[in-house]
Here is the input.
Amino acid sequence: MQEFVPGQRWLSETQAELGLGIVMSTDGRCVQIAFPATGETRLYAMRDAPLVRVELAPGERVRDHRGRRLLVTGAQDDGGLLTYACEDLDGRRVTLPEAELDDRMRFNRPQQRLLSGRIDRDHWFSLRYRTWMQGMREASSPALGLVGARVALIPHQLHIAAEVAGREAPRVLLADEVGLGKTIEAGLILHRMLLTGQARRVLIVTPEPLLHQWLVEMRRRFNLRFALYDRERFDAISDGNPFQDEQQVLCSLDLIAATPDAARAALEAQWDLMVVDEAHHLAWSETESSLEYDLIEALAQETPGVLLLTATPEQLGRAGHFGRLRILDPDRFHDYQAFLEEEAHYAPIADLAARLLDGESLSDADQALLESLLGDIQGQGREEIIAHLLDRHGTGRVLFRNTRASIPGFPERQLIPHPLTEPQAYQALSAESSQRLTPERCLGGDWADVDPRVDWLIQLLKELRPAKVLLICAHAKTVLELREALLCRAGIYAAVFHEGMEIVERDRAAAYFAAVEDGSQLLLCSEIGSEGRNFQFAHHLVLFDLPLDPDLLEQRIGRLDRIGQTQTIRIHVPYFSGAASETLFRWYAEGLDAFEHSCPAASAVLAELGPVLLSALDGGAEIESLIADTGALTERLNRELAAGRDRLLEIHSHRAKADLALVDSIEEIDAGREVADYLTRFWDAFGVEHEPGPGGSIVARPGNQMLQEHFPRLPEDGLTATFERASALAHEDRDLLTWEHPMVREAMELLTASDLGTSGLILIKDGRFKRATLLLELLYVAECPAPPELQVGRFLPPTLVRLLLDGEGKDYAEEIPHEVIRGDCLTRNFKLARQVIKSQIPRLTEMLARGDGLARDRVEQLQRDATERMQAVLAEELERLVALAKVNPNVRRDEIERLTDRRTRLEAYLAKTHLRIDAARVMVTT
Ligand SMILES: Nc1ncnc2c1ncn2[C@@H]1O[C@H](COP(=O)(O)OP(=O)(O)OP(=O)(O)O)[C@@H](O)[C@H]1O
Here is the structure.
């Protein structure tokens, strides 16, 4: 007989609906139990009370009386009363005396439910099995986190996402050329890290004009709901750190740079991952750095994962680029001069890496070079050698850059120059070269009366109507005055987009431009429209003036030249013959060839020839020789880059064969349509109504008799969705239902956290067994609860151990897979079911005990394998740090120590892997 102690929690075996009982008193023969959930008190004879002691095991999920969801990690017994060690959802440690358990919780163990004859409808048992199996498949799938996004499967993006998100705490610069999908790559990385629990608190920092676009992209492509923080929202939260109110925050760089309170709060908010878009604005040189740079650097020091995004990493010069790398990996990038020198020697390394990749055999000289670079390479495979080369030589693991040249399928760009006569008023100006390029700004409000670009634009719009035209110029004032002129002179109403507008107004203008019907034909943008925005639905770009920076020119063209552009892009450039604008136009067109192709060497050429260019714009230097010199230098630098740095980058940024394998594996998951079968069965079992919708979609809505009032993520008025990626891409109003969709995930969680399907009884026919043979199918789950930062799931995710035992204890699980078992569920005849079970209790108890033993043996093996895997992975990481430390004295000792400590902790947690029975189903042959 078990001892009852006041304060202990017990459960009625026969009346689970009473909730959790608490011992009030005992008198030697009777025990008085209160059930606070129902307000009842019962008296039981102690000898045969139908009560079970509630003793939670590590790995169980519970709620406390405040409703917090907690994970049990251990327990301590003090005079018969238990105090549980738990973790909350954020991984914080919490102590939970048993008296504080939620009174309404139900703790029925499968074996208790089964032996007391409480059985569920059979489909829940199968759904339970499928849920655990799916969890295991995902944990080891290279496609994890990449399946659920509403995106086309583009190999280079998937490569980067899988490579980066697979790292412990990724710190990388995503620097694909404009419009190749850095936002999508960052979203995929985020999605995967959130899904695996690798990250929970995420901060995205963008320039203000891109806030809303990010918000929408994260929501509609990844089902991620970020909280947008502006000044008003930040100030409105006066209680504690405003950034700690939300897990996923989106805010502008301006907010944290201009508000010391916000900067301080951001620094203290303990993010797991930070994403910074348009990171080229973070200025750094060997002697000074901008406030924004310092802020992001400080945040990066506090944040384990950091993604910096820029299409033009060298827009503010080589030093700026180095500065950004330094934020990511201060150990690797600690000396700018050494970095420049190293870069000059990339060509032979790139050549070697390329030949390794092509499977060519290596000469003795190659071997010698490899050994001089990497030390002893005995026993290492090619992939491993390449990875080490890229990591330790070149910008390696930290920088990814894909170029149009290496990605097929981009449309052409066509340059359409429009020479115009420079008006007298502009000729008379004695402005500096930079001002000569925007002469209207020197003339005052009525410049549009004399500037021939206005009439030319009116004419162009007429000719192109109804085609959409995006116009970019340097200044907001030009935008506004041009709008007035177009309206007055030709009745053309243009949408505008400039820094003087509120964010909402800007987004409204962009939407007005995007609208197919009743939208505006023309959007006039100041320079803020030249970054990040998606305007690929337009095919005509007017560059009303030209910037002095080739990277900025590339950013402007990138608004149209991006993934999703379907036609040749027409770039219209008006300039004044004989004036500075013609010189600059020719420099770009003939010197750099930067309009029709992106030019990797452009910023280096500007750095070298910038002074001559400025002088030519002023009418000083000789234009023809400037253009000839520019052409020659561009040609040489592009060639060198292609052979050295960029080649290394390219090898590292996508791997054609492996990337296609990843695409294949996602396509296979898409095509398998298993999730469709799973979810529709789930809906049926739960009582959700569903029917085919328009164009192959499916419409689901709450039914009248659902198991619970709400089904996860199912709106009251229903949901239109699809299981087809192509359909979701074409129809934004349809959710893409995959294993990673929040509805599916939450339904899976709901099931595994409930009792549904934990016990069952079916009648089967199977010629292998005599009639009336008793079989027991047992589902055990091995789990290793550990603090989230250890990412134990990488090595041992919750793992299902299935057994199928006969009365002699023989296991048929391999011979008879779960999927082939068909039977009649006995829930329709509870009385019979109870009789069957009652008559077999001793046998079933024995079989359960045998199952426990067998499952425990399996878990020991699982544990050993996981520990070995973990040791191999961490040994590799340790080796990298030690190798880096040899070439870089600045690698911190504590980093190596932290990694070693992690290994020790993981070993300890894996050793405590916990096994529990999740479900049991009796089968009787007929
Ligand atoms: N895999 C994809 N599936 C569908 N659309 C995509 C995919 N990748 C990119 N796009 C679309 O292509 C456009 C460009 O992508 P994105 O904004 O991520 O590029 P970017 O590299 O961040 O651009 P920028 O350099 O201008 O900042 C966006 O409209 C995006 O939604």
